[in-house]
What does this fold into?
Amino acid sequence: MLLKRMASHGTLPEDLTGFVLAGGVSRRMGRDKAQIPWRGGTLLTHAIEQVEGVAPKVFVVGSLGANKLPVPVLADNLSGVGPLAGIQTALSNSSTDWNLVIAVDLPLVMAEVLNWIAGFRTRATQVAIAPRVNSRLQPLCAVYHRGLLPEIDEALARQQSSIHRLLERLSTRIIEEDELIANGFAPETFLNVNTPEDLECARAIAKTMYG
It folds into this structure.
């Protein structure tokens, strides 16, 4: 609620733009993940609402047809390449140095944790900020500096589409799991819903975490 009040009073940071990546293929889920019902809306509208609580400008990246959304939709610059192309599209369309990127299939990520992660940019010397949970980076719930774009362009030109390898090679502020826990954020927050079983697990966790 606090973050929503901040948004209504125009106090969101001017140096941050938000992007929801919704263009991935949902083979294991068996249906479009963006349109899965979630908490009175869909996974996509839920993600948009969370990012709107943190960034004054929000975009969706992906091919979504004629869906009516409250924010602009950007088609991927490159299709069939993976989420790194979505990040490239985001950064190439951004007018701010810092950019919050979240995948549509992270329904347990709320505005509070996004705001906390984004806050690291104010003292960061790195070009990317990403949590690491269960020994694995979370590049699709992360903050990227626009200066990273040339590195992404070069990686994609070489057909190197792994975000993990790029972040491991470049300067990245990694938020470790113990930092998350110490600040009241559960590792389960970063559960990706890639399968129907994941979705049921997320719904069960959501009942416990949010009621």
